[in-house]
Specification:
Layout lengths: L30 E17 L2 E2 L2 H15 L9 E7 L2 E7 L8 E15 L5 H14 L6 E6 L3 H7 L3 E7 L1
Antiparallel strand pairs: 1-2, 1-4, 1-5, 3-4, 5-7, 6-7
């Protein structure tokens, strides 16, 4: 298991000009290990788990990441989780510190599962991640999701993949 690595993220097919089409091959049932993996941490406001300011926050963070030269298209992963019905936190994988943003690291072991379906099923998928961890004799401490495409691109590609990433 390679430290601080994600499975291969193929960004070569992008017919929308926004999000690349996601190829789930190699993402299901993976084990990840992070040791002080660097992330930008940002929060968004929500109303009953529906994001309010996600576009503004993601645009700001992505601009700061690009300005800092901390982006790598092959690992441009954002791990998201709802902390309450009113707030979500997002971890943007970066190659180095980004000025003006809240920097953090993640360390530990994680498991992945690929899901395909509407965003409203995230609660069910989160439960599935907890069950998967239990089946391994582990406990899911936190469950994140890598939303592979925005809603507009998911509609264009007629598929909506989400990667569950559970800290175990």
């Amino acid at each position: 298991m390679e430290i601080n690595a994600f499975p291969f993220y193929d960004t070569s097919e992008n017919t929308t000009g926004c999000c690349p089409r996601f190829n789930p091959e190699g993402w299901d049932n993976q084990r990840l290990h992070f040791e002080d993996k660097t992330f930008v941490r940002a929060t968004t406001r929500s109303a009953m788990h529906i994001p309010w300011n996600m576009g503004q926050v993601f645009t700001r963070v992505q601009q700061h990441i690009e300005d800092a030269g901390a982006a790598d298209p092959a690992t441009e992963i954002v791990l998201s989780r709802d902390t309450s019905p009113w707030e979500a936190e997002h971890y943007f994988a970066v190659s180095k510190d980004v000025d003006g943003e809240d920097m953090t690291t993640l360390s530990g072991d994680f498991i992945t599962r690929v899901f395909e379906g509407p965003y409203r099923r995230a609660k069910d998928y989160s439960h599935d991640m907890e069950v998967a961890a239990t089946a391994m004799g582990k406990t899911a401490k936190r469950v994140f999701f890598f939303y592979t495409t925005c809603p507009r691109c998911a509609k264009a590609y007629e598929e909506n993949y989400m990667i569950g990433v559970a800290e175990v």
